Amino acid sequence: MASLNAKASTGHLRVYGPALHDYGAPLMKDRDQEASLLLLKIRHHYEEALGRLTFRWLSDVCLGVCVGLLDPVSNIIASTLLAAAEAPVDTGGPTAVDGPRLRDMERRSLDGLVAFLTCFFPYLADWEAVRYLLLAEADPIVAARIVIEYRGVRCFREGSAAARGALKLALHCAMVAAKHPCPSQLADAWLSLSSSLNNVVPLLSGVQPNFPRDILHSFHTLVKETAHSPCPPPDGSLVRPWKLAARCRKHAPKLTYRHSWSLTRVLLDTIHGFYLQALARLPVGYHRSLLDAGHCYGPFDPVSNIIVNTIWYQATFPPLSQQDELDIVSTLCLMRIEARSFYGLVSFLCTCYQDLDTDQAIRFLLDTALNLSATKHCSSVKEEQEAYRAAAIAAWHPRPDAQAGFLSSLKAMLVAPHVLSLLQDGGQYQLSSQCVHQIHTLLCSEYHSIVCVPTHQQRPAPISERQFHFTMSEGRKQRRTHRRISAKVKAALRRYEKQNSVLTTAKARA
């Protein structure tokens, strides 16, 4: 989460930095109260399920969990019938359900529901999952749809293989968290039933206090047929539960919480993907400049912005010596520039639009995939330069004024479309040295003529090697780790090249 830096926010600038506390997280007493409300909803679902079941066997009812592909009551009934079908007992009339064990089952169902959401959405906190489940009336699939809609996940496809794999893993984790004695079997049973939900829903809706025994037999037969099917259910079979959840979603209340904490983590993960793409495209020798000033904000798409900022900074402020080149890029250094870019993006938007808060800025960045060109832009070049200056200060750019002038002048540059075409012509491949040189020539020559920045920059005071490595690698311990990992990576690459050469030789001889 980001908080306003009052000291750096002068005039119209709104500079954001790391927050010492997550003000969006509720207090512990509020979390306990929300968990109690969710537990009460789960208790009502168990009461309704018990009222519809004839065979109220203790061993079966205490194996019914709220997690599944249908509504909570149907999930409880389905898992109870599955347990009854696997281990039938004599029907001497309904018996009383043991209260303490049923309360324990309700608590385990709550743990399973929370585990389902946090596994399906890795950046979701437990207390956030509880809030989504409260909105969904403890329905796991409806809660998942609310999260998807709130986060604006565009790449989610209900019937895709990725969605099926994520759902399978979430079901397994939920059953384990609920301490079900057969978690894998129950999760697999739900996945196999996904292709037959059109038959399962009428069966479960027919379960009433005096329902005939053949419903249990029909349900057991359906489970066996789907479980022993020679071919696995198609990926498209999982569309049905999502469609059913979409109908229930229309009646669910709107989200009133601001979950900026988890959204920030989603945004940082998105930024991380853009930096990996930029690293793959930049040639050797530009990694140090990327870690120093390769931010993802600018007038182009995020990857192009990273590359342009990196090339411009290295060309305008070249390194003092070649000994600073990196052989590998550590995760810690990459996370640092990613976090700085995040604060820069938020500061840019909040400076451009003074009535925008951090939560709205984060939502906007997620909806537009961090593409600032999708904004309406500032009313003047001066306001845009101020916004870029706020972003550069928030991102700890070594030369914030110079970067702000450079980015705001890209619109006035007639060569900017040519730069973008050079970046896009490379596609997903690494940029050649000739292409990088052309971009460098176009950017720097035009920038110096427009902004009138002197060509000879004052060289900063040199720093000792010890101080340099302490700043970039967080001390000697990180430096030793850096060297050890670098040696292992190089050794693995040598083995890989050797294996490829052996295979190539063998194929040539054959």
Question: What features would you describe in this structure?
Answer:
- The chain has 510 residues and is mainly α.
- The protein folds into three domains: 28-249, no CATH class; 260-462, no CATH class; 474-510.
- The chain is built from 22 helices and two strands.
- A two-stranded antiparallel sheet has the order 1-2.
- Helix 12 crosses helix 14, helix 12 (260-281) packs across helix 16 and helix 15 (331-352) runs antiparallel to helix 17.
- It comes from Aegilops tauschii subsp. strangulata (Goatgrass).
- It holds the Pfam family PIR2-like_helical.
- InterPro entries: PIR2-like_helical.
- This is PIR2-like helical domain-containing protein.
* Overall outline: globular
Secondary-structure element pattern, one letter each: EEHHHHHHHHHHHHHHHHHHHHHH
Query: What does the largest sheet look like?
Result: 2 strands, antiparallel
Sheet with most strands: strand arrangement: 1-2
- Residue stretches low in confidence (pLDDT < 50, at least 5 long) are 88-95, 451-458
Binned strand content = under 5%
Decide which structural class fits the backbone: mainly alpha
Question: Roughly what percent helix?
Answer: 55-70%
Query: What's the pLDDT, averaged over the residues?
Result: 79
Rg on CA atoms, Å: 29 Å
What is the first-to-last residue Cα distance? 60 Å
Counted up, domains total 3
Number of strands: 2
User: In DSSP terms, counting alpha (H) and pi (I) runs of 4 or more, how many helices?
Assistant: 22
Domain PIR2-like helical: 41-146, 269-375
Organism: Aegilops tauschii subsp. strangulata (Goatgrass)
Protein name: PIR2-like helical domain-containing protein
InterPro entries: PIR2-like_helical (IPR046527)
